[in-house]
Amino acid sequence: MGKQWWKDSVVYQIYPRSFNDSNGDGIGDIKGITEKLDYLKELGIDVVWLSPVYQSPNDDNGYDISNYREIMDEFGTMKDWEEMLDGMHKRGIRLVMDLVVNHSSDEHAWFAESRKSKDNPYRDYYIWRPGVDGHEPNNWGSIFGGSAWQYDETTEEYYLHLFSKKQPDLNWENPTLREEVYELMSFWLDKGVDGFRMDVINFISKEPGLPDAEVTSPDKYQWGGDYFVNGPKFFEYMKDMNERVLSQYGAMTVGEMPLATPEDGVKYTDEKDGIVSMLFQFEHMDVTSGPGGKWDQQPWKLTDLKKIISKWQTELHGRGWNSLYMENHDQPRSVSVFGDDQSYRVESAKMLAAWLHLLQGTPYIYQGQELGMTNVYFDSIEEYKDIETLNMYKEEVEEKGREHEEILQAIHKKGRDNARTPMQWTDEQHAGFTSGTPWIKLNPNYTEVNAKKALSDENSTFYFYKELIRLRKEHDIIVHGDYKLLLEDNEQLYVYTRSYKDQTLIVAANFSGENVTHELDESLQGGNLLIKNYESTSDKLEQTSTMRPYEVKAYLI
Ligand code: GLC
Ligand code: CA
What we know:
By secondary structure, the chain is α/β, with parallel strands linked by helices.
C-alpha cells in the first residue's frame, strides 16, 4: 500500500449507538457492526471511522471516556471488537478509531484520584484552579452551556471543562499525562487500528494563566477560544506525538479542528512538517449560522459556500490535504440543509454527493447519508437525548424564558440528534435497527427511506455513492486535479473544473429547485459523461444547457 493511502480512500463514519443492534436492548453495538460489514463492502468504502466505543458513562454518548482501554459494556467485549476488526481487514477495510484526549470522563480513575487531594500524584492530570473572590477562576463558558468551571468541594477548587461538567479537560502541560496518551495510542495501534480521528484536538493547549475572555455577549459566561483554540503549544505537542508514536505506524490521522483557517490547514497537514494527515474544518458548516451562532440558523447563500470551499480547495492544493464532509454525528442531515428533503430528496442527495466527492480531498460518508436520510422533526423536547440540545433548551426556555416553539425549531434545524436517529435498514418494525425499544426514536420516514429498498433499486442514492467511490479509483484526476470555480456569482449553480495532465473534469451542480440555463466557455465542450442524476442527460457537454432541479452532471474532457 502507498504511503498516503488515505488520499484515494473514502471513509464511512459509524456512530455505533445508532448503527445496528444485535441483541435487542435497543442500543447499537459492535456485533451489530460486524453483521453489516458486507453492506459496507458492497458500498465500496475503504476506511471506517468508528465513533467512541470505549467505556463511558455516556454523558455525551461515549465522548466522555472512563477507560481508554476497555470496550463499553453496552457495545460488547474486546473479543467482539477484535472480531469486528478482523472482519474489516479481511474485506480490505481499514479502521480509524476516535481519540478523545482533550478531556476524559469525570468517572475515569485518573480523575477520581485527581479530585482527592491537592498533592495526589494525579492532581496535575487535570486543570485545577482556586476560585477568585468566591467566583470561577475566569469567565469562560462551556460549549455545552454554563460556566467552563466546576467547583469541587473536597479540595475547594475548580476544574476546567470546556464541554460538560462530566468531561474534565486533561492537562497537556503535564509530561506524564502526555506519556499516558502516547501509551494508550500505541495500545490500539498495536492491536491493529489504522489511525485516529482526533476529537477537538486543537483545544489541547491552553494559554498559561487562563486569562479572562473578552466580553462579546450579554451572557454571564464568554467564549474563551482565543486562549485555547490552536493554543501556544498545540503544534509542539502534536509534533512530539507524531515522532514518538504515529510515525512508527504510518497511521492516518484526521484532526477535528473548529475555527481552523486554510492557513492553519496548510501548516497542520503539510506532508513533511505537518501534524495530521488531514483535518475537519468547520467553515462550510457554519455558512448557515447567523450572528447568534449555531442555534441561529439563517437562509444561506450559495456564493458564500463557493467562497469558503474555493478558498480551501485552492490554498491546500499541492500543499496540504483536506477531508470532504457535509455530515457527521454533530451535524444535521445535509439533504435537509443544502438540498430539498421533500420534493427532491433523491435528486438533491445525489447532487450533494457528486458535488462533494469530485472535489479534492478525502470524502467522508456518515451512516445513512448514502440513503439520503433526512432530519427528524420530533414535536416534544422529551424525544431528544443529546446533552448539548437539552442543556441549551433548559438555558433558553427555562432560564431565559424564550418561547418553546422557537427553540424547538432551532433544534429541528441544527440539533445533533438529527444525525443520531437509528440507521434505517428495512421498512419493518424499528427499521430493522433493533428488535427491542430503540434508545432514541426513529425517523418515521424509514418506510420509504431504507437500505433494503435502496439495495433493490439500481437508481438509488446508495448505488450513486458506490459509483462515485468506483470513479475515484479509476480516475487520478479526482484525487490529484487542481480546482477552478466557474460562474462565480451564480446563486443557483455550482460549477467547477479539475485539471490534471491533459484532462479536464467539469462538475455542474444545481443547488436550486428551479430550471437554470447557463453558458460555458467554448473550450469546455464535448467530452464524456461521467455521472448524472437525471435519466436523460446529454452524453456530450454542450456549451449552453439547462440544469433541472438539483441536477448534477460531470464530464471528462
Ligand atoms: C467533538 C465531538 C462531539 C463531542 C465533543 C466533545 O466535537 O464530535 O460529538 O460532543 O467533541 O467531545
Ligand atoms: Ca445492543
